[in-house]
Prior knowledge:
The chain is an all-beta fold. It has no helices and 11 strands. The chain has strands at 2-7, 10-13, 18-26, 33-39, 46-52, 57-59, 67-72, 77-82, 91-98, 112-113, 117-122. Strands 2, 4, 5, 6, 9, 10 and 11 form a 7-stranded mixed β-sheet that branches. Strands 1-3-8-7 form a 4-stranded antiparallel β-sheet, with no helix packed on it. It is globular. The model has no long low-confidence stretch (mean pLDDT 93).
Amino acid sequence: QVQLVESGGGLVQAGGSVRLSCSASGRTFSSSAMAWFRQRPGKEREFGAGISWADRIYYKDSVKGRFTISRDTAKNTMYLQMNSLKPEDTAVYYCAARRSIQIVTSFNEYDYWGQGTQVTVSS
């Protein structure tokens, strides 16, 4: 079993930055893919950015250039650096992992999920 623990969410002003982290524990696959999803109020959970342990990275167009996904293999931790935040970025952000190698954008393709962390961007 894989457990994902998120941290770093909170209240931030528009234009500010926040760094989310996701620490993985338990039995893991080094070749698995991980991703950040978010769910805005009243909307479906959507893909934001993904990274494989083979260094493949994929961003949703709306966050490209503002968000940066990264990982620290030694710490078994994934990060999402979010800059130039906008009120529309307000959402619950989830860390997810799947047993397969490829990054995909559909939430039902992921096997493990963190508890979610709230990011609120004030105007």
